[in-house]
Amino acid sequence: MLLASYFACALLLAACLGLELAACRSRPPAAPHHANPAFRRFQRGYYCVYLPALAADWLQGPYLYKLYQHYRFLEGQIAILYVCGFASSILFGLVSSSLVDQLGRKKSCILFSFTYSICCLAKLSRDYLVLAAGRVLAGLSTALLFSAFEAWYVHEHVERYDFPTEWITVTFSRAAFWNNIIAVGAGGAADFFAEWLGLGPVAPFMVSIPLLVLSGVFAVKNWDENYGKKRAFSKTCGDGLKCLLSDRRVLLLGTIQALFESVIYIFIFLWTPVLDPHGAPLGIVFSGFMAASMLGSSVYHLAISKRYHLQPIHLLSLAVLLVFFSLFMLTFSTNPSQESPSESFLAFLLIELSCGLYFPAMGFLRQKVVPEKDRLGVMNWFRLPLNLLACLGLLVLHDSDRQTGTRSMFGLCAAVALLALLAVGRLFALSRHDAELRLPAPLGQSDTDATPEL
After folding, report:
1. Which of 40, 157, 413, 446 is the most interior residue, by most CB within 10 Å?
2. Which spans in 27-161 are helix H?
3. Please, are residues 79 and 395 in contact by the beta-carbon 8 Å criterion?
4. Which of 420, 424, 428 is nearest to 453 (CA)?
5. Are the C-beta atoms of 438 and 313 separated by less than 8 Å?
């Protein structure tokens, strides 16, 4: 597993580099924002706060399960700790946007740095209740990470600096690129501190703290405060539910998201106990996962380019199909009588590759069919079944024997992925007669010609 992990990571990174170089050659000449020093300075101020926060978050990914195992907790107890995190995500995810708007976006980013630092410090304790409280704080911190920073940037970009709104995607695209690079590097860094220096699985969490402090200090020093409009939580959720029930496309998207992402959450829990007993270097494996996800994202952007002009719905279908196939593989490769860690590792890489295809495709379709005014409420309803399914799956695993329970869980996840595939098929049928769900055809090509048969 050691050599296979390094080889897979290197191969995936080489493939990503090749696709990125090809994309650079085909990009149009530099846009006006490249020559605007005020905009470039504003971007750098945002990245100085946001990127260290992302790095701190990714550093904690490879060794979370291993740390709890190192403290001699049973798999069922570890599952409950993960459930605490998911349940916290349900609670704080529902109210995070309103909280951020009222507290202030800058203060919320500073609060993120503080709460996530406390969460990391809690990992030093072997007390189960302290670790559970740390997971609750992790749920709050994650909700702030994915709401406060973006909300602060959009407000400053539009209201304070009055830059063109189309430049917002430039900043977020570049942030997404660096996020991928940081995620891959975080796995290697975690492996270096935990294994090479022999500091143990708690080391990556301690290394995260200086990055969180750096993010908070830059926010205090360089950012101005801004606030959002006060919104009634009940009205937001009520309008979101009406939108969800009145548009079949939105309901199908919500179903696909809940089914697909709940499977991914369970995969996040299961990959370590499947690979770790076979001597896999967890940090390098994690880097390989992130490289596979980055490759999937690169393939997505290449596939929707003018050269190939595939539609996002095609790539969403491919992503769900890949996950179903991978989970089906895992039901055999995790058979207790004949385990195959190499096949399991390959299946996990395919799952991450599919995530790289899934998230941009889902983001495009969601932007097209969910009205801006209802997006927050709809997303709240999307998250609820997602987290509930993940919690239910982990609780089922909690009551199972480790080896047979893991295999059974992958079988159950494959069934869930099959349901998601059926929902994607229905959405694909709708998209054939709905131009809103498709990218516009290139000049000189009819819309019908641009949509290949599957």
Report:
1. 413
2. 37-59, 64-70, 75-103, 105-122, 128-145, 148-155
3. yes
4. 428
5. yes
Output the furthest CA–CA distance in the chain (Å, rounded). 66
Q: Under the phi-then-psi rule, with left for phi > 0, alpha for psi from -120 to 50, and beta for the rest, what region is 444?
A: left
Structure tokens, 199:
């500091």
Q: How many CB atoms lie within 10 A of CB 266?
A: 27
Alpha carbon distance 175, 64 (integer Å): 25
Residue pair 390/86 in contact (Cβ under 8 Å)? The answer is yes
CA distances to 32, 101, 150, 358, 437 from 446, rounded to whole Å, are 31, 44, 37, 26, 16
Which structure tokens are listed for 141?
Answer: 């911190």
> What's the CA gap between 369 and 375, in Å, rounded?
10
- Amino acid, single-letter form, for residue 307: R
Q: What is the DSSP annotation of 14-59? A: HHHHHHHHHHHHHSPSPPGGGG-HHHHHHHHHHHHHHHHHHHHHHH
Query: With contact defined as beta carbons under 8 Å apart, do 382 and 258 qualify?
Result: yes
Residues 307, 84: Cα–Cα separation, whole Å? 46
Given a contact cutoff of 8 angstroms between Cβ atoms, the answer to whether 101 and 227 are in contact is yes
Distance CA 359, CA 363 (A): 6
Q: What is the pTM of this model?
A: 0.91
Q: pLDDT (tens digit, 0 to 9) for every residue of the chain, 454 residues total?
A: 778 888 999 999 999 988 888 777 666 555 666 668 899 999 999 999 999 999 999 999 999 999 999 999 988 899 899 989 888 887 887 788 888 888 999 999 999 999 999 999 999 999 999 999 999 999 999 989 988 999 999 999 998 999 988 888 889 989 998 999 999 999 999 999 999 999 999 999 999 999 999 999 999 999 999 998 877 667 777 877 788 788 888 889 888 988 999 899 899 999 999 999 998 999 999 999 999 999 999 999 889 888 778 889 999 999 999 999 999 999 999 988 888 999 999 999 999 999 999 999 998 898 888 877 777 777 777 777 777 788 887 877 655 555 667 888 899 999 999 999 999 999 988 888 777 777 776 655 555 444 444 4
Alpha-helical (H) ranges within 163-247 are 168-191, 203-222, 233-246
Contact 244, 379 (CB under 8 A): no
With vertex at residue 168, the alpha carbon angle to CA 441 and CA 36, rounded to the nearest 5 degrees, is 110
Q: Are 411 and 99 in contact (CB under 8 A)?
A: no
Residue among 304, 316, 310, 277 at smallest CA distance from 403:
277
